[in-house]
Amino acid sequence: MHLLLVEDDHLVAQGLIRSLRQEGYSVEHSGTVKHALECLSSGEIELVILDLGLPDGDGSQVLKHIKEQKVIPVVILTARGSIDDKVQGLDMGADDYLAKPFDPAELFARLRVVSRRINQTQSSLLRCGDVVMDTSAHTVKLSGQSLTLPRKEYMLLKALMENQGRVQSKQQLENKLYQWGEEVGSNAIEVHIHHLRKKFPSDFIKTLRGIGYVVGKR
């Protein structure tokens, strides 16, 4: 799941990013209202952890934008811990509210609850032409025939199929495939793409030189 962490405290953010990636999340980070809105405009964010006290405004501006424009779950994580603050945040549309200081285990448990809610409302089948991926069963079929893919190739294909018609840059794909601190070869994505292309029609994965990769119509 592709997650946006909106947190202006650098040390808190770095610790959370590391832990979230270990939990299997793909994480983008923003420390301001302005940058958070820019990240959301990509259309790729599936879940937001939101601090309210930001240097260029209030996190409630981000929450308001999300609820007006997108159907994305938001978990507020903030130092504002009064009952009134919690009620206000939930009334504005937040899916959960956790006050600092917090136990990471509790945050991850709440994220799992929100993630299950998302999964229950989304189909587990991704289709692109003759390729069908079942993200619940972790299977891939081409023209009805099952394919066996190594884990990284499966994750790469999933990232591309979840964003059909939208170009994915090398950096975006690396963020989705590799955890925080994991060593990534300079040509790792190119190698995985090369192996995937051997298993699918030649025009299934398109390369936009200097930009990235895409499946489906643009």
CATH-assigned homologous superfamily of the largest domain: Response regulator
User: Order of SSEs, N→C?
Assistant: EHEHEEEHEHEHEEEEHHHEE
Gap between N and C termini: 23 Å
Q: Bin the helical content.
A: 40-55%
Radius of gyration, Cα only, in angstroms? 19 Å
Biggest sheet layout: 5 strands, parallel
* Corresponding CATH architecture of the largest domain: 3-Layer(aba) Sandwich
Number of strands: 13
CATH topology label of the largest domain: Rossmann fold
Strand content: 15-25%
Structural class: alpha/beta
How many domains is the backbone divided into?
2
Number of helical regions: 8
CATH class of the largest domain: Alpha Beta
Mean pLDDT metric: 88
Describe the protein.
The protein has 218 residues and is of the alpha/beta class. It folds into two domains: 2-121, Response regulator (Rossmann fold, 3-Layer(aba) Sandwich), CATH 3.40.50; 125-214, Arc Repressor Mutant, subunit A. It contains eight helices and 13 strands. It has helices at 10-22, 33-40, 59-69, 83-91, 104-121, 151-161, 170-177, 188-197; strands at residues 2-6, 26-30, 47-50, 53-54, 57-58, 74-78, 96-99, 125-128, 131-134, 139-142, 145-147, 206-208, 212-214. The strands form four sheets. It has a five-stranded parallel β-sheet with strand order 2-1-3-6-7, with helices on both faces. Strand 4 and strand 5 (57-58) form a beta hairpin. Helix 6 packs across helix 8 (188-197). The two termini are 23 Å apart.
Can you summarize this structure?
This protein is α/β, with parallel strands linked by helices and 218 residues long. It has helices spanning 10-22, 33-40, 59-69, 83-91, 104-121, 151-161, 170-177, 188-197; strands at residues 2-6, 26-30, 47-50, 53-54, 57-58, 74-78, 96-99, 125-128, 131-134, 139-142, 145-147, 206-208, 212-214.
